[in-house]
Amino acid sequence: MNHDSPAALRQSDVLDPARAQAFLTALGRDDEVSAGDALLPFFHQLYFWDAQLPSALGRDGHPKVGGIIPDMGLPRRMWAGGQLEFFSPLCAGELATKNTTLKAATTKQGRTGPLAFVTLCHEVTQGGKVCVRESQDLVYREDPDPTVPMPAVPMARTDEMFAETWSFDSTLLFRYSALTFNGHRIHYDLDYARDVEGYGGLVVHGPLLAQLLMLIAERQLGTLKRFTFRAVSPLMHIETATLCWARDGTCWVRGPDGRQIMTAKAE
Known about the structure:
- This protein has 4 helices and 10 strands.
- The chain is an alpha+beta fold.
- The radius of gyration is 18 Å and the shape is globular.
């Protein structure tokens, strides 16, 4: 159920326990999720699908811009980062509502061409109270120009207190795309990712990396109240990543060549 206003979107969904359990299974965990259980932080990403007719999709598989996200003439979309506040756990098997509003849409000239920045605000409510508040940052850019050199990527820290090593094959990327109803072709269509958007492989979802960092943070902190993350460079499905945690609540993703993939802060 959606509002008519292009600057607002309201969606309601019953938070199916089977979907949360399927995601945990895809991550290699054998947790059981039943109605009434508290969902893990950021699991609201599995719900509130924005299903559109094929005619309403752009070339990249996402819904066409021009609705809640304005069309600023740039074709390549990336999830650049986000800020989340967790007030109380969402409950599996119960109705919840997500209200989305457009906070900002701006353009600027970057080192490799024009960029458009979009910020969406999401509030997820259940039982009459706000459980999650999220600010989602998207960036749009031009198609790649092979004659323009890519900017240098900073190297990641190596002083972590704890780390996990993760590999991301095409099956995991497909399953995460399916569970989140994310049609973005860079995550499952290798020809499109390489030939149209200029990547070296399938792109690992930014929110999947953020989700894994949040699961580490919750284990370390006990309860996760706030989480902020920023994508620095894309990770390909053929690469192994190291997910790192430091004692002060900072966490990050390091690529196999040492480059910074994502930075984050948990509280």
